[in-house]
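Researcher: Structure prediction, please.
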Amino acid sequence: MEKIWLSHYPQGIPAEVDVHAFASLRDVLRSSCDRFSELPAYSNMGASITYAELDEASRDFAAYLQNSVGLHKGDRVALMMPNLLQYPVALFGVLRAGLVVVNVNPQYTVPELEHQLKDSGAVAILVLENFAHTLQEVLEKNPTMNLTVITTEVGDMFPVVKELVTNVVVKYVKKMVPGWKIPDATEFNAALREGRGQTLHHVPLDQKDLAFLQYTGGTTGVAKGAMLTHGNMVANVQQLGAWIAPNLLDGKETLICPLPLYHVFALTCSLVFMKIGSHTILITNPRDMHAFIHDLKKHPFTAIIGVNTLYRALLDNPDFAQVDTRHLKVVSAGGMAVQRVVAERWKQKTGTPIIEGYGLTETSPVATSNPLNIEDWTGTIGMPLPSTEVSVLDDSGNEMPLGELGEICVRGPQVMPGYWNRIDETDKVFSANGWLRTGDMGFADQRGYFKITDRKKDMIIVSGFKVFPNQIEDAVALHPGVAEVAAIGVADEKSGEAVKIIVVRQDPTLTEQALLEHCRKHLTDYKMPRIVEFRTEPLPKTNLGKILRRQLRDAPAPAGMARAVNAAPAH
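Model: Predicted structure follows.
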């Protein structure tokens, strides 16, 4: 469609950006480390590293991977940990060595982790000790898996005394590290020391080279690796950088990052702020609201990223009233729809509007955003970023008129080339003329603002995380007492949506408790059913035998047949 949104861009925002300004993310990192060497780059739990220290430590880790582990350009390295100082060090170390990052949710169950490691062909993994027991089970199930294991502890990047105290408290006082044993595993700090004396071999990188395998369920629920190239990521960094540039100053900003860096939204946002020399505060566990708000009070922050549930949790906490938000310039939200009540309360409390954007893992991830100069929440996903095309198409690929419903589709330099080893799935999401079909239904208005009205598929969004009914149903159906199951999303005040399962029992004595205990062995917490409904009649199906989830969503549950089994999860 015609780029009608360009006439509504704020002053200073270009229609196009230079997506070739950097050949790779490695060049972005080196530029920032040279320009801002003495400034703090990342802080976590009261400890910090400067850009110079980030440069040095990531170089050492890269050299270790090349020399001691023997990895070569294009090899995949998995990172499995929450937000810690080790994350950016390892992230940039992997990229500097010419390798590919495979981001892993540390809360994954054994089947989930096993699938991702096998599918990606990862040859090495850095895992926080707290989650090493899960990796141990995967390795025991797959004795021929050739995987170099590097382990780290929470305090490994802290000053020596703080490191020792933190690691002892985490392991022995709070008992947060389940027992594990992985022969030949190497400690992260030992790897850095070893790499310090080794040569970092230059690996040519250009924009076509892979930077990340970022796993997503897409519209099918089968976890697929979106291939994000250095060009994709550099493009989105440049696009977002141009979008926020009028509000920010190089080397002067402080970003609060409570979203996990293994999630592509937080990942790309952190790269945008690193490029301009910002100080990023990594929040390891935003559900620990006391510690989170302590960090907010400690750092006069100018930017924060989050999802609707996180902003609501802050507003609902009485201690947030004591946080100084006078320096705020950018409040960004993605991953799930922002609720009007949250947006209005946030603006009232802080004086700064929530800037809602939209994207997918497949778009690195941001495709559209509201401009930073809005006075109030718009209820839309905003306009396409510079160098981005967005259109609303029907099932035949024809463009819909303004205001009419269709599927939102995206083209641009941030759009992935395809899914890892899944040509079939790649072909499904791209039209013949290169549009990425998002699976989201919506329309564009006269200004070029887009609004999402519904999802084309049955995906459930829990606190910004995608949950796919097929995966839930497959896990529940493994229980011998289940005859039929359907998973649907239901509205939830805290998490936006929650997972509900509707079950026809094979074993009439099957209880909610037994079924949920079974689910916990197969599903990460945010994927866990929050509502269980038992039915005696067969579930509604098509003529081909496919369960009609939409009919289940739209029809009210029989009286007394369903109840919440525990609270919806926090972000």
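Model: Residues 401 and 418 are 29 Å apart (CA to CA).
Researcher: Thanks, that helps.
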